[in-house]
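S., here's the first fold you wanted:
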Amino acid sequence: MARLKSYSLEANMSKEHSVIVIPGLGNDTSKLEWAIQHWRNHGLEPLVHSVDWHKDEFQSKLERLVDLVDELSDKGDVVSLVGTSAGGSAVLNAFIERKDVIHRVVNVCGRLRTGAQAGFRSFEARTASSPAFAQAVKLFESREDTLTERDRQKIMTVRAMFGDELVPGDTTILEGAYNTQVPTPEHMLSIGAALTIFSQPVILFLKGEQIR
């Protein structure tokens, strides 16, 4: 799947900046589309792409996502990725496939590694309903060390400041990336807040602007 293609963001500022957004296991695309519609006011064009976590193997989902990245890039768009919850591991895997094409990547409350937790928040418990999700996490974890310092500067992670009952904070962060928090508790609340009332850092990061 490797295909190298480089571009200068500055040379493409007149092009559309497409942001592919991957939902989590709940696949509630309509609510996600509503939450991010205001991003268009900031020069971003969000596109919610469902991978349907409860069907097929992750590899086929990854291939379709990478094909979409290629399609948008080939028509001249600047392309960034945002993954919410389970979507976080999906977008990080796609980034590894197209790191010289993708401008920025944001993981919002998504598990990126198996972790050492037991019980309700364990990797096994949280991925039981979706083998594809388990495959996505393990694939990224196996390739995390291939990310260079420059790659990591293109990545933001967002987690709940006051605790996420589903995703342990230490499984969401990435060394060398821009790791931040939203001042909220709870998984779904924190995702919603990161995309709406506390979305400024995400929007600025996607645009490559200084976060205030």
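And the second, which I think is the more interesting of the pair:
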Amino acid sequence: MKPVKRKYIIDATALQLNISRDVVDDVVSYYYQTVQKKLSLADHHSVTIPRLGTFVVKRKSLEQMILKHQRFVAKIEQDTDISVQTYELILQKRAEIERLTQLQEKMAEETVRKEDVNLKKQIYRDGKLN
């Protein structure tokens, strides 16, 4: 199931309930922002919302974010004199890298699981056809 576009929800709801499009836009925008925050926490690789769709973290974006944080930490660590604030920032970025790396591993496990399921389905179909 693909996610429903925000604009479509706004127009359909405003028309059906005879409410101002701006009011509906505010409510829907808040809802989508909440979903986006849940995805940005990097606890899960996807968030499924009934009758709305599944929102998935993109693998390429995740890899780019990890690289971005790693480069940032490497650049800051090159300085010879680091303040306490800078050191705290380095620790935060390292924790973020660790969390994103764990999410990347979860995504890899999910990919392997899906491939295994598809293989089992294919074996079942081949056996059923013979």
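Why I say that: The radius of gyration is 22 Å. Residues 63 and 71 are 12 Å apart (CA to CA).

Talk tomorrow,
H.
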